[in-house]
Design the sequence.
């Protein structure tokens, strides 16, 4: 059976401010069910392990329920994986064929900074696995290197939460860096759509999406890449 590992942020505040953050629930739940319904066995990890914080703004969209989020929260087995997430240091790359990084602003403070996460992503990719990320999840790619030491994103078409989207949400003075800028610095060929419109990019076994609205497209591309791998 194909196995996937979803990795979530453990950061609950935006830097030294009192603004709540965490992982974006819909960016996790939408791909989770797309893959699970396709027969993929999914584990959940986080940077610190245990019960990772969810961004309170990610449980609904524009005041409307999100079916996949409600389904996840009502599923005891799924919630047990979430509340008892594995610590990233304890995850073995050899166990997985897919690694997926949901976003949420919390990732900006602990994804790129995690050596264990960068190593895990690089190893899964080097062993022929699939790497996916959405919105701020691509911050985790910043610490990922291939076996030859080059950045995983170097020369690859990539995507993620854009600089203009950060400015639109008024967080450019709060975040420690811009995702788009840093991916470009590492040689990523950054592609983007208009702010807050669905957009996802696939370059072989690397799939990235721009924002929460892109989660379903990212999931579809993950399944497409998996079908080709088999």
Sequence:
């Amino acid at each position: 059976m194909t196995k996937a590992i979803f990795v979530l942020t453990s950061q609950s505040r935006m830097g030294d401010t009192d603004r709540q953050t965490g992982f974006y629930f819909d960016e996790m739940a939408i791909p989770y069910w797309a893959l699970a319904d396709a027969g993929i066995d999914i584990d959940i990890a986080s940077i610190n392990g245990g019960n990772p914080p969810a961004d309170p703004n990610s449980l609904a969209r524009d005041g409307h329920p999100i079916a996949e989020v409600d389904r996840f929260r009502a599923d005891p087995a799924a919630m047990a994986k979430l509340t008892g997430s594995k610590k990233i240091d304890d995850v073995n790359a050899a166990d997985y064929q897919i690694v997926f990084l949901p976003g949420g602003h919390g990732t900006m403070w602990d994804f790129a900074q995690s050596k264990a996460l960068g190593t895990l992503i690089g190893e899964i990719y080097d062993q022929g696995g699939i790497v996916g990320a959405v919105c701020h999840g691509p911050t985790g790619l910043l610490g990922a290197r291939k076996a030859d030491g080059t950045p995983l994103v170097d020369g690859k078409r990539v995507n993620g939460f854009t600089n203009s989207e950060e400015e639109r949400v008024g967080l450019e003075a709060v975040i420690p860096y811009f995702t788009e800028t840093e991916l470009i610095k590492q040689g990523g060929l950054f592609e983007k759509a208009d702010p807050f419109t669905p957009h996802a990019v696939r370059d072989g076994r690397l799939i990235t999406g721009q924002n929460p609205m892109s989660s379903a497209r990212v999931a579809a591309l993950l399944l497409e890449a998996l079908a080709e791998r088999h």
The mean pLDDT is 97.
